[in-house]
Design a protein that fits this description.
By secondary structure, the protein is an alpha+beta fold. The protein has a single domain, classed as Aminopeptidase (3-Layer(aba) Sandwich). The chain is about 25% helix and about 35% strand. It contains three helices and eight strands, in the order E-H-E-E-E-H-E-H-E-E-E. Strands 1, 2, 3, 4, 5, 6, 7 and 8 form an eight-stranded mixed beta sheet that branches. Strand 2 and strand 3 form a beta hairpin. The longest helix has 15 residues. The radius of gyration is 15 Å and the shape is globular. The chain starts with 8 loop residues before the first strand and ends with a strand.
Length: about 150
């Protein structure tokens, strides 16, 4: 990278699941982590965020309002393997929180993989459930007030 060249990553919001988000989620959740039921009916109603490095999708998440939980849920947070360690997961989470607050949301929940709970705690989330399995993977529900 040239000394004067600066990489600017942008985040775009979509009302439908874009192909680049689908591909990144397939790579992370299906190929890397072994999940089988990655895509569901919520993908058709959720807002989807995609972070780009030029035209390459490098991080994604989705969010939606859950009547059952009484809050907005952020989920399917994924960062491309070669971009990990750059705090992109935190950046896309904070953008989702900003948009949820802008949309009138006051409380957020995440179904966190237990191995990622410390990441969510660093963003202000607290555990609100006992551990449970989602497919083969231990999860915990976590919440944050805006």
């Amino acid at each position: 990278m040239d000394f004067f060249e600066e990489t600017v990553m942008i985040i775009k919001r979509f009302r439908t699941l874009p192909d680049e988000a689908r591909k990144l989620r397939e790579e992370v959740f299906i190929k890397e982590q072994g999940f089988e039921n990655e895509f569901d009916e919520l993908d058709s109603t959720a807002s989807h965020l995609v972070m780009y490095d030029d035209d390459k999708a490098v991080a994604v998440c989705r969010f939606f309002y859950s009547e059952d939980k009484g809050c907005c849920i952020i989920g399917r947070v994924a960062v491309s393997k070669e971009y990990r360690g750059q705090k992109l997961g935190a950046k896309i989470m904070l953008e989702a929180e900003r948009l949820i607050k802008e949309d009138g949301g006051t409380r957020i929940g995440v179904s966190a993989q237990c191995q990622a709970a410390k990441f969510y705690e660093s963003l202000g989330y607290t555990k609100a459930s006992e551990e449970y399995l989602d497919e083969h993977c231990p999860h915990v529900f976590m919440v944050k007030s805006l």
